[in-house]
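Quick start: read one record
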Amino acid sequence: MIDARGLSCPQPVILLKNAVEKTREEHYEILTDNMPCVENVCRFAANAGYRTEYKKEEGGEYRVTLTRQ
C-alpha cells in the first residue's frame, strides 16, 4: 500500500512509478485524498499496463487498486 495522503501531484504518481520500476508487482494499492491525484494515477497506470479501479472511502479518501493486465 502506498500512502499518498496529503501529497499533491505529481508526488503520488512518482511514488507509484518508483514502486513499479523497483518491484514490478502484479497488484498495487495507493491511498490519496484528492481526485486529481486519482485521475493522474489512473492515467499513469494505464500507460504502464495496469487496470485500475478506485473507491471513495470514509473521510474523503480514495483507494486506487491497480492490477496488471
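The helical segments are 11-23, 35-47.
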